[in-house]
Specification:
Structural class: alpha+beta
GO biological process, one term: nucleotide metabolic process
Strand content: 15-25%
CATH superfamily: HIT-like
Number of strands: 5
Largest sheet: 5 strands, antiparallel
GO molecular function, one term: catalytic activity
Pfam family, one: HIT
Protein name: Adenosine 5'-monophosphoramidase
CATH architecture: 2-Layer Sandwich
Radius of gyration: 17 Å
Distance between the termini: 31 Å
Motif (Histidine triad motif): 92-96
Mean pLDDT: 95
Shape: globular
Number of domains: 1
């Protein structure tokens, strides 16, 4: 398998491991945006969050929370991208835990918004609700 994160899980590629559960692994990001930037990955391979089993998903956020607490950061971001267009660089689900100590280091986010009518928003909400499993 050519997935870099699967190879890290198997021990074929070294990492600086900080925590591990039966379902997930947390390790230091080798291209950090701030001190303490870590990744939490499921041991189950899935390119997008929607590809994972509920069991794998259920383990990710609690481990990310433990990592965030352990960094001691008062301010931090939890980031999870899905697909290249959404800025996912590695095709294996991963959660970034990014301490935000100041305006210079950590995640920088632009959040463009657009206008939508209450009627459109209501229709969209109904469409999404009707597709929920």
């Amino acid at each position: 398998m050519s997935c870099i994160f699967c190879r890290i899980i198997k021990g074929e590629i070294p990492c600086i491991k900080i925590a591990e559960t039966a379902k997930s692994l947390a390790f230091m990001d080798i291209a950090p945006t701030s001190k303490g930037h870590a990744l939490v990955i499921p041991k189950e391979h899935g390119e997008r969050l929607t590809d994972l089993s509920d069991e794998s998903c259920a383990d990710l956020l609690p481990l990310a929370k433990r990592v965030a607490k352990a960094t001691g950061a008062e301010n931090f971001n939890i980031l999870q991208n899905n697909g290249r267009l959404a800025h996912q660089e590695v095709g294996h689900v991963h959660v970034h835990v990014i301490p935000k100590p100041n305006t210079e280091f950590g995640l920088v986010v632009g959040w463009p918004s657009f206008s939508i009518s209450k009627e459109e928003l209501s229709e969209l909400g109904e469409q999404i609700r009707s597709r929920m499993e």
